Structure formats: structure tokens, C-alpha cells
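User: Let's play a game. I give you a shape written as C-alpha cells, and you guess the letters that built it. Ready? Here's round one.
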């Protein structure tokens, strides 16, 4: 049972059936129970065509090991996070490949209190058990499976983040991208005074309108066009398992996740004055400035959900945000949610009377950014070193929390290697200078091309 290629740093991900299949899923179920020594688990799955088969095999593995399963059916990753804490079980597994291409699938694992299971906290141990065929003992008797697809407790939890009586009748375009977000949007609609226009709302693992990944610019056009055609106040789009939410303003402009981090931090600091806010190292200046102005304390963490969640618990931070559109909330078990951010933003729009553009325009002008640019390179380490040597003598500050971050008087950049591909990821920001932003991106690009 070869499985090592589908085990990544934070989750399990691979092509079905060559890298991930029913045998491996079954082994993961057995090994999970052996590692966590738990008696009950939550299992959920996304809308991908292979997800029911993988979830069934996983559940067989868990129950053969003697543990019970609460099967919450088709859902988003955050519903597994919610159910794991809500039902006070030993752990949870979400069968999903999020935004990966068709034919891929995977799993995200958590232990008690929805704490992430990554390489160093159990995932590698599960992989090793499978590879040496040491799946742990069978249970004295098989565990029971309880199907529970009732979303009402989760929906009520989401509604706690805003006062529905204060909401204005905004017109919202919702695009789940045929991912798992559609049923949750539908369930929330009756509680909210918004006028909804929904497209691609039916979960469909065939992905008739393309894989749900709004980070790809080519995937945004359908959302943007529908927003403009229906004259909506804003548009929302999600990835497949809806742990990320993406925003478009009334003009159809895609709003980088970076500016939502500062906006959400400011909102939560009004409710929790003086609190700590966790952010990643890729783009930082706007977040630090906005957090300070709101009386909070900005704390930098390494990129990645396991690192952010761990740091949030250590600092008792009220909120954590990554520019990649992952938003984490203390009141949501320190987990990321693709539903809470838009609920908070629509509440702020209602409260202030401002459009989404008015809420972010000033910040975007103060700290323009490049957005993340990816470059295919043969040697990630050598290219990083070349760029570092070129700029280091001019820099005021070098930070190596994640790749390299170099800071100058009026601009900064972060360059880091991908965990999974031969890619370099670049983010550049300036202090209010859009023209300089383009110049700096071009200068770094030229160095990367030399290295290639």
C-alpha cells in the first residue's frame, strides 16, 4: 500500500486512483484511530465525484478500528471543524481537494477541539503506519455510524457574528462555482434581508463552469459579468470546500484578500479592544498599520493554516488573516471560515452605509500590492539566493520567517518557494506608489529570468 506521495505538509492530496484510493483511505481511517486513541470521529466530504467512495472507505477504516462516526455528508471543510468541536469528538476528517483540478482528491484532518493534524502533529505518523502496514488493532466490535446532515446548529453559529436586524437590503451575487457552498448560502438566505442572485449554485463534481478557484484570474470573469449584469452591490465567490471567500466590489473589481485582512482586523478590534491579530509575512504593511490605528497588536506568523492556528492559540488572538483569503477566528475554534468574513463585511456595509469600494479604496491607495505572482524555476534555492544577494545590501531589514522578506524605505517584497511545486511566489508592496510597484516587480522578474 504505497501512500507517501499523497501526504503533504498540512493535508493529504493526490490524483485518484494512482496516488489516493479506497485502500489508502481505509488505512488512513484505521491509522487515525490508532494514533489518536479516540472513540468517535466526524467525517464530511465535498462534491467531487470520488469523494463518496473515499469517505465510505475512510469510515470503514475508522469503524473497523472500533470507533464511532458521525457522518455529516456533503459539506464544507469548516463544517467538519464546527462539528468536531460542537459534538466534542476525538477528531474529524474532511474529504476534499479544495481548488485542485478535476481528478484530484484529498483529506484535511483535525484532532479534538478542531486542532489541525499536520506533518509534525500526527500526519507523518499516520503515513508511516500505512507504509509499514501497521494500522493498529481491530476494535473488539465495529463502531457505529450515525448520519447527521442537519446544518441548523452551524447556521445558528454563523448568525451570531452579526445583528440581522441592523442589516440593509443589499443585492449580492453569490457564485459557489458548483462547489459545496451552495447549500449553506441557501440555508442562510431566509435569515438575511439581502436580495440574492446566485450562479453555479448546484454542487457538481463535473465542474461544468471550471474548477472553483477564484484565485485564478480566468475564473473570475463569469462572476464579474453576472455582478455587472444584475447591478449588484458586491459579489462573493468561493473555492470548492469554501474555506476561502473572495470579494468583488460593485464595479466588478476583484479585491485582493490582503485588504480584507486589515478590514476584518479593524472590525474585530472594535469589539475586542487591544487584542492581538495574527498575519502572514507575504504582505504586511497595510495590516500592521490598520491594526495599530485600531489599537491592536499585530503578530507575524509563518504562512500556513497549522502555523497560524497554533500562533493564534498561543497569543489568544481574536483573528488571524492570510493574504490568500484564509481568515481565522478565535470564536470559531481558531479555525478558518469562508462564511464569517462576508457576514462581517455585509454587516459593516450596512452599519456604515459605505460600499465595499469605499471601505477598501483608501487602504489600497496607501499600500498598493502586486498580488501573488508565480514563477516556474528549476532551482528554487539558488534563485532565492541570487535575488537576496542583489538586494540585501540596500535593504533596511531582512526577515526569513517564510522565504525572504526584504524591506526598504518605500517598498518591500517577499519571495518564497512553494511547498509542493518548483515555483517561486512573489509579493511586492509600496507606500502609495503604483508606478514604483510595477518597476520593482519588473526588476525582480529580470533577476528570476536570469536564474532560469
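Assistant: Ready! My guess for every position:
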Amino acid at each position: 500500500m504505497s501512500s507517501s506521495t499523497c501526504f503533504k505538509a498540512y493535508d493529504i492530496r493526490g490524483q485518484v486512483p494512482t496516488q489516493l484510493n479506497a485502500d489508502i483511505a481505509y488505512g488512513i481511517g484505521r491509522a487515525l484511530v490508532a494514533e489518536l486513541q479516540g472513540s468517535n470521529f466526524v467525517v464530511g466530504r465535498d462534491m467531487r465525484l470520488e469523494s463518496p467512495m473515499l469517505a465510505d472507505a475512510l469510515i470503514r477504516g475508522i469503524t473497523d478500528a472500533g470507533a464511532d462516526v458521525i457522518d455529516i455528508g456533503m459539506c464544507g471543510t469548516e463544517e467538519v471543524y464546527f462539528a468536531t468541536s460542537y459534538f466534542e469528538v476525538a477528531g474529524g476528517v474532511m474529504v476534499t481537494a479544495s481548488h485542485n483540478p478535476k481528478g484530484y482528491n484529498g483529506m484535511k484532518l483535525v484532532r479534538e477541539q478542531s486542532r489541525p493534524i499536520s506533518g509534525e502533529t500526527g500526519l507523518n505518523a499516520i503515513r508511516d503506519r500505512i507504509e509499514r502496514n501497521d494500522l493498529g488493532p481491530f476494535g473488539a466490535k465495529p463502531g457505529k455510524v450515525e448520519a447527521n446532515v442537519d446544518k441548523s446548529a452551524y447556521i445558528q453559529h454563523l448568525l451570531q457574528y452579526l445583528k440581522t436586524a441592523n442589516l440593509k437590503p443589499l443585492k449580492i451575487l453569490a457564485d459557489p462555482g458548483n462547489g459545496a457552498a451552495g447549500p449553506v448560502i441557501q440555508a442562510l438566505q431566509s435569515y438575511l434581508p439581502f436580495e440574492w442572485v446566485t450562479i453555479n449554485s448546484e454542487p457538481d463534481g463535473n465542474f461544468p463552469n471550471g474548477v472553483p478557484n477564484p484565485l485564478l484570474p480566468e475564473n473570475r470573469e463569469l462572476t464579474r459579468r453576472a455582478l455587472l449584469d444584475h447591478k449588484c452591490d458586491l459579489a462573493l465567490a468561493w473555492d470548492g470546500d469554501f474555506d476561502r471567500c473572495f470579494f468583488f466590489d460593485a464595479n466588478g473589481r476583484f479585491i485582493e484578500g490582503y485588504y480584507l485582512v486589515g478590514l476584518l482586523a479593524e472590525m474585530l478590534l472594535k469589539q475586542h479592544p487591544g487584542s492581538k491579530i495574527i498575519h502572514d509575512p507575504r504582505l504586511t504593511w497595510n495590516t500592521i498599520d490598520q491594526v495599530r490605528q485600531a489599537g491592536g497588536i499585530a503578530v507575524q506568523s509563518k504562512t500556513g493554516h497549522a502555523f497560524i492556528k497554533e500562533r493564534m492559540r498561543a497569543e489568544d488572538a481574536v483573528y488571524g488573516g492570510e493574504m490568500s483569503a484564509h481568515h481565522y477566528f478565535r470564536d470559531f475554534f481558531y479555525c478558518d471560515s469562508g462564511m464569517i468574513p462576508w457576514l462581517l463585511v455585509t454587516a459593516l456595509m450596512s452599519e456604515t452605509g459605505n460600499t465595499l469600494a469605499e471601505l477598501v479604496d483608501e487602504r489600497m491607495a496607501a499600500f498598493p500590492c502586486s498580488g501573488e505572482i508565480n514563477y516556474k524555476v528549476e532551482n528554487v534555492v539558488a534563485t532565492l539566493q541570487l535575488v537576496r544577494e542583489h538586494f540585501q545590501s540596500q535593504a533596511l531589514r531582512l526577515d526569513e520567517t517564510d522565504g525572504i522578506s526584504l524591506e526598504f524605505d518605500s517598498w518591500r517584497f517577499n519571495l518564497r518557494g512553494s511547498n509542493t511545486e518548483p515555483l517561486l511566489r512573489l509579493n511586492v508592496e509600496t507606500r502609495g506608489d503604483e508606478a514604483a510597484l510595477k518597476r520593482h516587480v519588473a526588476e525582480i522578474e529580470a533577476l528570476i529570468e536570469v536564474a532560469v
